């Protein structure tokens, strides 16, 4: 597989994404004892390219203050907390049944073993506040003077900002109240990254939030939102009208996303949790539940309508092998009948191919279908089967050229349009075993389709 999964058992949010020298650490919400979302620990893995991972022992386990919920890890170069110069400090939520508080743990051996701070918790919830979690901590360097630690914390419907000099004593300094997609939406996992602006020698702050809502039928829906803005280490001010945020991923399986500020190419890299509960068949198809999305490099593109966030899949060199290329003549249907198990499909048109439909189809027991269609200036994506995505309209973006990239791994599909200016992630259904890719080109443009097969072990099973 191309995707990161735990060695076994349950996984949800990525946590504590930190680069220490050439090593990228990935911690994650993990129940080492089962396939259910409970008994949360921090699992741990390391990589040098965000593709090949080495699993390490579980880093943090529940204790008398509660389970270990999401949070950040930082390198304390100046030893502000007194745990040792260069120690890695995890700032996370301790979650008891009706009480969430923020705590610290530290590692002085490069992240392998961890000790919890004896003075935990370092931030207690105010009276009556239940949803109080997922601290994101950054080292903020003002133009002049000493740096400090800034924290964004998800508190009910809002994001609270705190400041500290030593990671232990925190002062609340501001509140950011975003517009909500649903009236009762709860915010989770705030993320703050400095993202480079393409073609300019500067960065902008980007705030990323995961929001979820319990719908009247009892089901839960969630999505990830983003906004560019100004951040002075105390207050976040959106660069858009007030508090409006945009959807970062248009699929149904991308949540709780967080990133490394400095990826392998010194650009921030974001990953999200792809929830696989829906596809837990009986018996489950594998001994784990939950995967991380393909890592995405983030860049901002200036456009007349404001910033566009480009999310480009980061796949280590050599992941894909030589490809198969097909012309897509105007007004015709083209079919690729023999597909590798894991592959990337790239489409290119020199203009807006109004009326093109791309269909991934599986046959036999799994009669699944995934369709991307261009209708005027919009795209629709439909995934049928268990993880019904429903049609969702997405703007096409630039059409000079018009580019679509689909990454199909065992059990998931991620779609990137217009160089990653639009992204959509799905788990299950068709990703399990597509047997056929059809392009019905009802447009008046001819295009090109390329299939790159993956060199991972899964392709041993190639049909
Ligand atoms: C988001 C989330 C976080 C919380 C964690 C618990 O998926 O609900 O808010 O810290 O998962 O596993």
Describe, in plain words, how this protein is organized in 3D:
This protein is mostly beta strands. It has no helices and 35 strands. The protein has a six-stranded antiparallel sheet, with no helix packed on it. A hairpin with a 2-residue loop joins strand 28 (369-375) and strand 29. The chain starts with 8 loop residues before the first strand and ends in a 9-residue tail after the last strand. Mean pLDDT is 91; it is low at 385-390 and 458-463. Residues 12-13, 29, 40, 69-70, 93, 133-134, 188-189, 255-256 line the site of beta-D-fructofuranose (FRU).
Topology of this structure?
Blueprint: E1 9-20, E2 23-31, E3 41-47, E4 53-60, E5 67-76, E6 87-96, E7 99-107, E8 115-116, E9 132-140, E10 148-155, E11 158-164, E12 171-176, E13 186-196, E14 203-214, E15 220-231, E16 236-238, E17 246-247, E18 255-260, E19 269-274, E20 288-289, E21 291-292, E22 296-303, E23 306-313, E24 320-328, E25 333-336, E26 343-349, E27 356-361, E28 369-375, E29 378-383, E30 392-395, E31 402-409, E32 412-417, E33 422-427, E34 436-441, E35 447-454
Parallel strand pairs: 1-20
Antiparallel strand pairs: 1-2, 2-3, 3-4, 5-6, 6-7, 7-8, 9-10, 10-11, 11-12, 13-14, 14-15, 15-16, 15-17, 18-19, 19-21, 19-22, 22-23, 24-35, 25-34, 26-31, 26-35, 27-28, 27-34, 28-29, 29-30, 31-32, 32-33
The structure holds beta-D-fructofuranose.
Structural class, from secondary structure content?
A: mainly beta
Percent of residues in β-strands: over 45%
Give the distinct bound molecules: beta-D-fructofuranose
Spatial order of strands in the largest sheet = 24-35-26-31-32-33
Return the average pLDDT rounded to an integer. 91
Rg result: 22 Å
Largest sheet: 6 strands, antiparallel
Q: Which overall shape is indicated by the principal axes computed on the Cα atoms?
A: globular
Unreliable parts = 385-390, 458-463
Q: Report how far apart the termini are.
A: 16 Å
């Amino acid at each position: 597989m191309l995707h990161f999964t735990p060695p076994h058992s349950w996984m949800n949010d990525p946590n504590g994404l930190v680069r220490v020298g050439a090593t990228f650490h990935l911690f994650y919400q993990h129940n080492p004892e089962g396939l259910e979302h409970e008994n949360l620990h921090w699992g741990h893995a390391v990589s040098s390219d965000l593709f090949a991972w080495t699993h390490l022992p579980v880093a943090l386990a529940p204790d008398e203050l509660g389970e270990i919920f999401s949070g950040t890890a930082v390198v304390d170069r100046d030893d502000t907390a007194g745990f040792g110069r260069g120690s890695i400090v995890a700032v996370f939520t301790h979650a008891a049944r009706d009480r969430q508080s923020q705590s610290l743990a530290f590692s002085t051996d490069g992240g392998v073993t961890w000790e919890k701070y004896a003075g935990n918790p370092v931030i207690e919830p105010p009276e009556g506040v239940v949803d109080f979690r997922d601290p994101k901590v950054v080292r903020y360097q003002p133009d002049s003077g000493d740096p400090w630690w800034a924290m964004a914390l998800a508190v009910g419907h809002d994001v609270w900002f705190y400041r500290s000099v030593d990671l232990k004593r925190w002062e609340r300094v501001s509140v950011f109240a975003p517009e909500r997609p649903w009236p009762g939406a709860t915010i989770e996992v705030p993320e703050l990254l400095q993202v480079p602006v393409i073609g300019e020698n500067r960065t902008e702050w980007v705030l990323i939030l995961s929001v979820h809502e319990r719908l009247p039928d009892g089901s839960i829906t969630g999505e990830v939102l983003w906004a560019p803005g100004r951040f002075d280490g105390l207050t976040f001010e959106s660069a858009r009208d007030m508090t409006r945020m945009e959807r970062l991923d248009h699929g149904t399986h991308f949540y709780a996303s967080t990133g490394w500020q400095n990826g392998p190419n010194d650009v921030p890299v974001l990953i999200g949790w792809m929830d696989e509960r829906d596809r837990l068949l009986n018996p489950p198809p594998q001994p784990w539940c939950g995967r991380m999305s393909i890592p995405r490099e983030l860049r901002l593109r200036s456009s007349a309508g404001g910033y566009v966030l480009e999310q480009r899949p980061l796949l280590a060199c050599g992941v894909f092998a030589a490809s198969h290329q097909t012309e897509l003549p105007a007004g015709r249907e083209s079919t690729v009948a023999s597909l590798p198990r894991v592959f990337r499909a790239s489409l290119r048109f020199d203009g807006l191919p109004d009326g093109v439909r791309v269909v991934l189809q599986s046959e036999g027991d799994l009669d699944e279908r995934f369709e991307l269609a261009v209708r005027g200036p919009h795209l629709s994506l439909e995934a049928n089967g268990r993880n019904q995505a429903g049609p969702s309209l997405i703007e096409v973006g630039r059409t000079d050229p018009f580019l679509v990239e689909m990454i199909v791994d065992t059990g998931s599909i991620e779609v990137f349009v217009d160089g990653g200016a639009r992204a959509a992630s799905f788990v299950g259904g068709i990703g399990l075993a597509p047997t056929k890719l059809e392009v019905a080109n009802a447009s008046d443009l001819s295009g090109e389709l390329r299939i790159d097969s993956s060199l991972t072990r899964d392709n041993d099973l190639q049909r």
